[in-house]
Amino acid sequence: MKQIDKYTNKKILVLGLALSGVSAAKLLHKLKALVTVNDYKNLDENPEARELINEGLRVITGGHPIELMDEDFELIVKNPGIPYSNPIVKKAIEKGIPIITEVELAYEVNESKMIGITGTNGKTTTTTMITEILNTDRVLGTAYAAGNIGTPASEVAMKATESDVTVLELSSFQLLGTLNLKPAISVITNLYSAHLDYHGTREEYVKAKMKITDNQTENDYLIYNADQEELSELVIQHSKAQLIPFSRKKKVEQGIYVKNDRIYFNEEEVLEVSDILLPGKHNLENALAAIAVAKLMNKSNEAIKKALMQFKGVKHRTQFVCTFEGRKFYNDSKATNSLATINALEGFENPIILLAGGLDRGVSFDELIPAMKKNVKAVLAFGETAEKIIETGKKAGINKTIKVVNVEQAVPEAYKMSEPNDIILLSPACASWDQYPSFEIRGNAYMESIDQFIQSKQEEE
To answer: DSSP assignment of 409-425, as one string?
Structure first.
């Protein structure tokens, strides 16, 4: 960890806890800042706050009192999930107090080489792929996955050395709170509309995403999806980094592409598409980005191939669960929008029983229709959007569409509607918050229900 003194005796407010807030507060405390932590949850249900109090930090819980802004804070480190409409945040902006997110703080002290990954979809899978490849046959140091993937960037920054690599998944929420962040290698997997309730407009969302390359220079690299015309134009106009395009549809110069089911980087054959274990065109794109990073980091083709032949995916992201009586169950609970579900559907050739539904954000699901028509034979819908999902299925010509209460009830019903060689796929196309606190809990409930169902069937026999 770099030893810096810019925060010594500076009054800093950490707004919002969760993992990143706890880690940021501990790092600032180590840097000898005068830290105040403010979290909405009450102290009696807030173990993170109690932990920080025990370490000697000042912690205020049970709300976000606007009176805090009467104190002379010099910086606010904001939890990414707290919107800029929050009264404390608005007051800080009025007073000209800088507001950053924890990833910016981590960047300032991180000694390791940093690789940043953003995009609308595929961030976590690409981040994990890169980490797995970089750690394969590694002799010196460790590649750490951090950021939006779950491990706070500042937690890694406190232990990473010059021999290590930080592979940092960056959401638009996190990027919005960066000032000097500059990855040596940046990746933009793709760019669609998302989180407009937070950003206000698509333009602001795109602007936040492009901050990943704002500070890059000609000594850095930006890997991007050349199959997206808008993204290609944006990076050419916006970035000063060396541009490395990836494409699964066409040959690209000075980049990575697919030709005759083989993957090439700058004309060099790296591996065959069939060497990638994960199914789906979207995962092929994720792999192209990951391979490009690996080649820039001088990983051998053998190490890349070895890693990708073993990589089974990330939990809740088109995750293979099990095979039972010829049916293959997949958990894609992370698919919280239509595009992610389209990607999952297009990854399979076999007939699909689709389990979908969740929080109603007032959007149409008609963009699912072409992918549904391909090989979805039945739809089981749940949650606030159940009726909308069923209506979409009917528009796609699917005769078997039923409403169930939740994913737990969907599992036995899906089995009844299935046959050997079918895919039973949870890919909700919606956020989980109407019924489940997170997509992880929804996915876990699905997998637990599969285990219980299989056990009950075996007991019957």
So the answer is: HHHHHHHHH--TT-EEE
| Strand pairing category for 262-265 and 256-259 | antiparallel
pLDDT score of 277: 85
The DSSP H or E segment spanning 222 is strand 221-225
Low-confidence ranges of the chain (pLDDT < 50): none
- pLDDT tens track for 129-172: 999 999 999 999 999 999 998 899 999 999 999 999 999 999 99
Overall size of the chain counted in residues: 461
Cα–Cα distance list, 412 to 11, 252, 380, 405 (Å): 56, 47, 11, 12
Q: Is-contact 176 99, C-beta < 8 A?
A: no
Give the side-chain half-sphere CA count within 13 A for 358: 26
* pLDDT tens-digit series, residues 298-342: 999 999 999 999 998 888 988 889 999 999 999 999 999 998 899
Determine contact, residues 35/28, Cβ cutoff 8 Å: yes
Domains, the chain, with CATH or none: 11-100 (3.40.50.720), 103-310 (3.40.1190.10), 319-456 (3.90.190.20)
Measure the CA–CA gap between 275 and 284, rounded to whole angstroms. 11
The annotation places the binding site at 119-125
The span from the CA of 342 to the CA of 371, in Å, is: 6
Give me the pLDDT at residue 217, please.
98
- Give the residue ranges of the annotated binding site for ATP: 119-125
Amino acid found at 381: A
Q: Contact at 8 Å (CB) between 322 and 454?
A: yes
d(CA 100, CA 82): 12
Please report the pLDDT score of residue 199 as a whole number.
85
- Tokens found for residue 446: 């699905």
The three-state secondary structure class of 327 is strand
**Interaxial angle between packed helices 407-417 and 439-460, expressed in degrees from 0 to 180 and rounded to the nearest 10:** 50
Four-CA torsion 248, 253, 254, 258, nearest 10 degrees: 20
